[in-house]
Amino acid sequence: MTHITLAKGDITTQHVDAIVNAANSSLMGGGGVDGAIHRRGGPEILAECRALRASQYGRGLPTGQAVATTAGELPARWVIHTVGPVWSASEDRSEALASCYRESLCVADELGARTVAFPAISTGIYGWPMDDGARIAVRTVREADTSVAEVRFVLFDDAAYRAFADAVR
Ligand code: AR6
């Protein structure tokens, strides 16, 4: 069974096998978590992202899917890049958000990663309401069929931490 833990802070400093990046389809970096990972992880990560674009993902990584690269200079061994949906008030995109967590765990299993840190995917620049994003994250991890022993949600601020603590209860 997967043990869920919560931490407040910066995902780039986590000592886990893999950290998950809330990326965009281009895999070429951006702001938020994505910016922090590329900044602290160094150019090796972007080099692998470029190679993935050239080989497998000419049109970009689709929303809800996940793919791994090195973690460069970060303490983790791998970065698993996933693309969350942009929040929409008119369309329910929850399944795409759940898919990010599920597919990332599937990639983690393929890598043999036993400890995985996730940010609150889509809840920053992509505008997903934190409480709902937290519920989807926790529910999806609980229901996942995975060999990952620990999923650590790394929350950037108190409000995010509280939302995940409520979702876990
Ligand atoms: N560690 C942990 N959590 C963080 C960190 C960090 N270093 N930095 C931000 N957060 P976001 P998204 C929180 O915007 O909404 C990028 O430009 C943040 O407070 O990183 O999925 C990509 O390239 C929020 O709760 O990701 C895409 O274009 C959560 O992490 C787009 O943003 C996710 O915020 C993806 O947007």
Structural commentary:
With 169 residues, this protein is of the alpha/beta class. It has a single domain (3-168), classed as Leucine Aminopeptidase, subunit E, domain 1, CATH 3.40.220.10. The chain is 39% helix and 20% strand. The protein has 5 helices and 6 strands. The chain has helices spanning 32-41, 43-55, 94-111, 130-143, 158-168, and strands at 3-8, 18-23, 66-70, 78-83, 115-118, 150-155. The chain has a 6-stranded mixed sheet, sandwiched between helices. A hairpin with a 7-residue loop joins strand 3 and strand 4 (78-83). Helix 3 crosses helix 4 (130-143) and helix 4 packs across helix 5 (158-168). The two termini are 17 Å apart. The mean pLDDT is 98. Ligand AR6 binds next to strand 2 and helix 1.
Would you kindly provide a brief summary of this structure?
Helices cover 39% and strands 20% of the residues.
- In round numbers, the mean pLDDT is 98
Describe the main β-sheet briefly.
Answer: 6 strands, mixed
Q: Which regions contain 5 or more consecutive residues with pLDDT less than 50?
A: none
CATH architecture heading: 3-Layer(aba) Sandwich
- Under CATH, the topology is which? Leucine Aminopeptidase, subunit E, domain 1
Work out the strand percent.
Answer: 15-25%
Distance between the termini: 17 Å
Q: Total number of β-strand segments?
A: 6
Supply the number of helical segments: 5
* CATH homologous superfamily (4th level) name: Leucine Aminopeptidase, subunit E, domain 1
Indicate the radius of gyration in whole angstroms: 14 Å
Helix content: 25-40%
Count of domain modules: 1
CATH class descriptor name? Alpha Beta
Pfam families: Macro
Organism: Streptantibioticus ferralitis
Protein name: O-acetyl-ADP-ribose deacetylase
Domain Macro: 1-169
